[in-house]
Amino acid sequence: MEAFTTHTGRAVPLRRGNVDTDQIIPAHWLKKVTRDGFEDGLFEAWRKDPEFILNRPERQGATVLVAGPDFGTGSSREHAVWALQNYGFKTVISSRFADIFRGNSLKNGLLTVVLEQKIVDALWELTEADPSAEITVDLEAREVRAEGVTASFELDENSRWRLLNGLDDISITLQNEPDIAAYEQRRPAHKPRTLQG
Amino acid sequence: MGRTLAEKVWDDHVVRRAQGEPDLLYIDLHLLHEVTSPQAFDGLRQNGRQVRRLDLTIATEDHNTPTLDIDKPIADPVSRAQLETLRKNCAEFGVRLHPLGDVEQGVVHVVGPQLGLTQPGTTVVCGDSHTSTHGAFGALAFGIGTSQVEHVLATQTLPMARPKTMAITVDGELPEGVSAKDLILAIIARIGTGGGQGYILEYRGSAIERLSMEARMTICNMSIEAGARAGMIAPDETTFAYLKGRPHAPEGAEWDAAVEYWKTLRTDEDAEFDAEVVIDAAALSPFVTWGTNPGQGAPLSADVPDPASYEDASERLAAEKALEYMGLEAGAPLRSIKVDTVFVGSCTNGRIEDLRTVAEILKDRKVADGVRMLVVPGSARVGLQAAAEGLDVVFKEAGAEWRYAGCSMCLGMNPDQLAPGERSASTSNRNFEGRQGKGGRTHLVSPQVAAATAVLGHLASPADLTDDRTPAGV
Ligand code: SF4
């Protein structure tokens, strides 16, 4: 997983609350057998409307999603995180995330930032008025900065450490590789093997 | 203080233990199938990782495979894509695969034991909740999610918090005609579908010790339906006899060393369980489900329960909803329920012993008019063995359909499905709404009840068959 230290990018202000994972990535996309290629399914229903904010030319290449409260409710599908990442989002800002979605996002390296609604409002106003306005999410300083906005946010130490170092569950386990190798050394010879010889 | 079976196996697999962290457990055997593995392989690819232990990993195809015309291309594009992806991934990473058409193909939980890969005192995982089946050998076996599948592929380990332990002691003798399936359905009805949550179950007692390996697998298979991720039975002479001579069982001096270790895998006299349940085997009778979860079951001799009889409001509501979905009237005798379809198969009851039981009852009898009966071996090997014993002829002469191996009608992911409103007696493990096809209604039953039901057209046990058997050919 990619490390996240600090990121600066243009934003998509998404003025909607209670965006559930089925709206983020509809169920029929779950039939796919890969972890990439979900970008076209992101907010699929809304994107049929040419006026939907993600479709606007001035929002192309934006990497920061500023969403309404209760983002990511509903089914626990990890695909919702993959769809946001595949599309190009590095971070999502909201005043409240659903728990499972938040867990999935941090595990996968998508930084979800919780800010007070009045700061989210300020970011909406700024980026709606000026689509080229940039937002910086600084994980080292735990701070979000934009023109006229400086706000600190919280994240538990363990998640922060993992993101800063780009460590997924597997890399964390692999830090104990010597223990695994030592265990393998002492495993009895009678244990089954799927490959002979 | 002594340790339980589960604790012994757990302790023997701890790679790393640190304060405030889950234990890192070593995994002896990783079983793969097409449904839960694609994104795990993709994750490896994206991160440039390899499979750490190809020699502890094996794959087969089961959920999506058709049980007819297996040489023809698979019609459903999603099923086809999942199977093709598994084949591509196994080829790319070097994983041993038994695809459709291969003699070792079959339901993943039938294949592992049959090859002798599932052994006492091992840890077994698979991206499938019925991995608990393998606990019948005294293995610690549990289902995992796709991200854990990736974790095991890459590291051969899993970080896990140790569950509590629950003893389910079954003493006495099962009456004639009462099988392991009836026993586990009765256990689930007793402790509830959430009763085992957070526990590893250990089935013990004289009734369990008398069971064959097949029957033990039926029991452990459904541990998950009681909410437990794993169920175990201590290995004994029955286990060793089943394993001896299987393709992947140890041989010579290694066999001796293995048996010596396996014999230590019993719960110590002074060990303590976190919870205990005692069941009297002699009091059991054939058991069937009437509702839409495996805990909604009753003796076949009972009536459909009246929801009003439940004191607990949520249970009452659940029963009302279940009866509505199932199209059943409270108070109707369970024996009066007519079925359209009978399904024999799945990782619960798709092994050779199950097929023998069904054949014995069907011999010289006919499946009732208007009833469709599917007999699906749990693996291609089981199918071959059944054919070698002539069981396939018995099924076909009775009017049942004899199919190729796979999960088949256990779940609506392949062509074998119930139509909306259709009702089945099924030897599988889940009677959830739509499990066997959209709108389908499922009664979970034992192989004995399945066979008798097929003959009579309504839920029945072999004791209800009062005929003198139709002579063959009439
Ligand atoms: S037979 Fe049924 S329960 Fe068993 S693995 Fe297949 S789908 Fe799952």
UniProtKB/TrEMBL annotation, chain A:
Residues 1-117 form the Aconitase A/isopropylmalate dehydratase small subunit swivel domain. It catalyses: (2R,3S)-3-isopropylmalate = (2S)-2-isopropylmalate. Its EC number is 4.2.1.33. It is an enzyme of class 4 (lyase). InterPro entries: 3-IsopropMal_deHydase_ssu (IPR004431), Aconitase/3IPM_dehydase_swvl (IPR015928), AconitaseA/IPMdHydase_ssu_swvl (IPR000573), IPMI_Swivel (IPR033940), LeuD (IPR050075). CDD domains: IPMI_Swivel (cd01577). Pathway: Amino-acid biosynthesis; L-leucine biosynthesis; L-leucine from 3-methyl-2-oxobutanoate: step 2/4. Keywords: Amino-acid biosynthesis, Branched-chain amino acid biosynthesis, Leucine biosynthesis, Lyase. GO terms for biological process: L-leucine biosynthetic process. One of its GO terms (molecular function) is 3-isopropylmalate dehydratase activity. It comes from the Bacteria. SUPFAM superfamilies: LeuD/IlvD-like. One of its GO terms (cellular component) is 3-isopropylmalate dehydratase complex. Heterodimer of LeuC and LeuD. PANTHER family: 3-ISOPROPYLMALATE DEHYDRATASE SMALL SUBUNIT (PTHR43345:SF5), 3-ISOPROPYLMALATE DEHYDRATASE SMALL SUBUNIT 2-RELATED-RELATED (PTHR43345). Belongs to the LeuD family. LeuD type 1 subfamily. NCBIfam families: leuD (TIGR00171), PRK01641.1 (NF002458). Catalyzes the isomerization between 2-isopropylmalate and 3-isopropylmalate, via the formation of 2-isopropylmaleate. HAMAP family: LeuD_type1. This is 3-isopropylmalate dehydratase small subunit. It comes from Streptomyces griseofuscus.
Automatic annotation (TrEMBL), chain B:
Pfam families: Aconitase. Residues 419-442 are annotated as: Disordered. This is 3-isopropylmalate dehydratase large subunit. Its EC number is 4.2.1.33. The gene is leuC. Pathway: Amino-acid biosynthesis; L-leucine biosynthesis; L-leucine from 3-methyl-2-oxobutanoate: step 2/4. One of its GO terms (biological process) is L-leucine biosynthetic process. Catalyzes the isomerization between 2-isopropylmalate and 3-isopropylmalate, via the formation of 2-isopropylmaleate. It catalyses: (2R,3S)-3-isopropylmalate = (2S)-2-isopropylmalate. [4Fe-4S] cluster binds at C347, C407, C410. It comes from Streptomyces griseofuscus. Belongs to the aconitase/IPM isomerase family. LeuC type 1 subfamily. Coiled coil: none annotated. Heterodimer of LeuC and LeuD. NCBIfam families: leuC, PRK05478.1, PRK12466.1.
